[in-house]
UniProtKB/TrEMBL annotation:
Keyword Hydrolase annotated: yes
EC number: 3.6.1.-
Compositional bias per record (Basic and acidic residues), positions renumbered to this chain: 19-36
UniProt cross-references to InterPro entries, sorted A to Z: RAI1 (IPR013961), RAI1-like_fam (IPR039039)
Protein name: Decapping nuclease
Organism: Acanthochromis polyacanthus
Domain annotation RAI1-like: ranges: 76-413
EC main group: hydrolase
One of the Pfam families matching this protein, by short name: RAI1
Origin organism lineage: Eukaryota, Metazoa, Chordata, Craniata, Vertebrata
Segments crossing the lipid bilayer: none
Similarity remark: Belongs to the DXO/Dom3Z family.
Cofactors required: Mg(2+)
Gene Ontology molecular function, alphabetical: metal ion binding; mRNA 5'-diphosphatase activity; nuclease activity; nucleotide binding; RNA binding
Region annotation (Disordered) ranges: 1-59
């Protein structure tokens, strides 16, 4: 049974805090409705082949907020099933060597985030598109963990419906509130699992290639804040004199379920609580953020409406419980530090007029995944269903065979087609 809430933006039933579902099934489970999937016109549905112009497949998904104002869907507590590291040269390691430890700064630390930008900064080349490769490397290295519950009779190689990056899911959660940036998500079904990988839009490529010097420097500030607040070892201290290298990353891999969608995704984690008595991952993880200092009611309102939405979505998905924020002035000096508990963010924004709601984010994501499951029917590593969205439009898709959009690498397809016990040593 579904319960609908008022569609009024000033509804007082606004602030039910989202909680993770700890047990299977249960209350509040919602179905995804067909009314959000609409017949689409042929103009929006582009396809590489005339055979794809099947009206039965020509559908679109609305992103209008009012359609997603219903009970919070079941979202199981995410479980960490593994982790991996990328070193200073972006090499993959199936371990936690790049894990860092949070060292709490003073409340007013005066960290200079500009320090080292010119002389101690190695920036990852973001024109290199890694697609899902690192996640797939992790899957290959940990395959036995993922299909242990499957019988040999099953045709499903992995015990999940979707494999993706956390960041792609964050974009989905924030879509009903996004007014500026569209996205393209490529989906391929292979042995029963749908892989979702982002494709850079033309607009995003232009933005990336035309960043101002000021913008480039400001992008460094977030990483510099991480360096001021993280140590490489559990008993160590931060080293603000070192090099900031954005190739390095520690990533968690979590498994969870959103309604009837079984998800496996990975996301970069900034650091963990160094207390040995801290809860197990992902509950011990800490997300670090920087933001402009808040001086006026208007700035506070914008922070609640736009920044906290992104911060909440990013950390809620993998079950990271807190964000430590460094508020900086225009010169890049951190003037104050504050902790935000993810579970308290919906309370914090409840008095904000016409603000975002966690339930809309999660229901939209759920319905998008249902739409993807309905659409992505052909099970083949070289077929890509491209889902595209622009603000104020519906989500549409197109189908591509053996195109430049294919993203599952040959080594992955070969490895996953091999029988589990025929794994060779190399
Ligand atoms: P801030 O978020 O503190 O600005 P993350 O917080 O997701 O771990 O990302 C770390 C830092 O990467 C960000 O810190 C920011 O400096 C940079 N960054 C990540 N994505 C970005 C984007 N889309 N635009 C600009 N900077 C980005
Ligand atoms: Mg961060």
């Amino acid at each position: 049974m579904e319960h609908y809430r008022s569609r009024s933006p000033i509804s007082s039933s606004h602030s039910r805090p989202p909680a993770y579902e700890r047990e299977r099934g249960g209350r509040g489970r919602s179905h995804c409705e067909n009314q959000r999937f609409r017949p689409n016109n042929q103009r929006q549905h582009q396809s590489e082949s005339a055979a794809e112009h099947n009206p039965l497949n020509s559908r679109a998904l609305s992103t209008r907020r009012e359609l997603y104002e219903r009970d919070f869907p079941v979202y199981k507590q995410p479980v960490e099933v593994g982790s991996f590291s990328l070193d200073s040269e972006r090499r993959f390691f199936n371990d936690g060597r790049q894990m860092r430890y949070y060292v709490e700064p003073e409340r007013n630390p005066n960290f200079d985030l500009r320090d080292g930008y010119k002389d101690r900064f190695v920036k990852r080349d973001d024109s290199v598109k890694e697609k899902l490769d690192h996640v797939l490397r992790w899957v290959v290295a940990n395959r036995s963990k993922l299909n242990s519950r499957k019988t040999s009779a099953s045709s499903c190689a992995l015990d999940v419906d979707f494999v993706t990056w956390r960041g792609h899911l964050t974009k989905l959660l924030t879509t009903p509130y996004e007014t500026k940036e569209g996205w393209m998500l490529a989906a391929t079904k292979f042995r029963g699992t749908i892989y979702i990988s982002e494709v850079e839009t033309e607009a995003a490529r232009r933005e990336r290639e035309n960043r101002t010097e000021r913008h480039k420097e400001m992008m460094y500030w977030g990483y510099k804040f991480e360096q001021y607040t993280c140590a490489d070892n559990v008993h160590g201290a931060p080293d603000p004199g070192g090099v900031v290298n954005t190739n390095e990353a520690f990533c968690t891999v979590v498994q969870t379920r959103l309604a009837d969608h079984r998800l496996l995704f990975s996301g970069e984690v900034d650091c963990r609580d160094k207390d040995p008595g801290a809860p197990a991952p992902p509950a011990c993880y800490v997300e670090l953020k920087t933001s402009a200092e808040i001086c006026t009611p208007k700035q506070r309102s914008n922070f609640h409406r736009f920044k906290l939405l992104k911060w909440w979505a990013q950390s809620f998905l993998p079950g990271v419980p807190r964000v430590v924020a460094g508020f900086r002035d225009h010169e890049g000096v951190v003037v104050s530090v504050e902790t935000f508990h993810i579970s308290k963010i919906s309370q914090l924004i409840k008095n904000e007029y016409n603000c975002w709601r966690p339930t809309v984010c999660m229901n939209f994501c759920c319905d998008f995944l249902t739409f993807v499951k309905q659409t992505v029917t052909e099970d083949s590593p070289s077929v890509v269903y491209m889902f595209s969205w622009e603000p104020r439009r519906d989500v549409t898709f197109s189908v591509h065979r053996d195109s430049q959009f294919s993203f599952l690498p040959h080594w992955y397809v070969e490895e996953m087609t091999r029988r589990p016990n025929s794994h060779h040593q190399s």
